[in-house]
Amino acid sequence: MSDRRQRPAKPPEELQRIYGELAPQFARFEPVDRLVLGPHRRALFSRARGRVLDVACGTGVNFPYLPPGVDLVGVDLSDEMVARAREAAADLDLRVAVHQADAADLAFEDGRFDTVVSSLSTCTFPDPVAVLREMGRVCAPDGRLLLLEHGRSRIGPIARFQEWLAPRHFERHGCRWTQRPARLVAEAGLEAVEVERSLLGVLTSMVVRPSS
Known about the structure:
CATH architecture: 3-Layer(aba) Sandwich
Helix content: 25-40%
Largest sheet: 7 strands, mixed
Structural class: alpha/beta
Shape: globular
Number of strands: 7
Number of domains: 1
Radius of gyration: 16 Å
CATH topology: Rossmann fold
CATH class: Alpha Beta
Number of helices: 6
CATH superfamily: Vaccinia Virus protein VP39
Strand order of the largest sheet: 3-2-1-4-5-7-6
């Protein structure tokens, strides 16, 4: 059985509600995010080039780590997240087009972007494999997907703690935090050319070709 079928999913309208309510909390959490995840975001997303799409951009937390001069578009399912991402772009003096959109049905032509980035997102998508394929579709054939994801640790005690807490975490955040990100990428028919795990095996950074 595939990794995604072992785990539940919340419908898009419920995810919109959850993340609309969580938007202020995400904004307050950003200083901690910068401390813990900032170096990982910078190491990965500084490699973006050209026309860049940030999928599930949230409050715009990835924006500061992208290289200057990229042509950036952000999309998110939550209107509240979109509003905060626009504020973040304005604070950073960035020219970013941010839209409300379902990541499983992106309104862009094939190969539109040189780089597609996303962070901590596949855990919430109702069908993460379909979304990864959609990311691959809108990425240029010679482009790259840069994915920063969390999942089940390879360290036994930590993994068991994640499994124990997973049902409550899912109900609150709609997040399947025991997923296996690299397995999802492979199931989507994409090729991870670089995979690095960190933070006790919980965080996975991937550089992915849009098709294998």
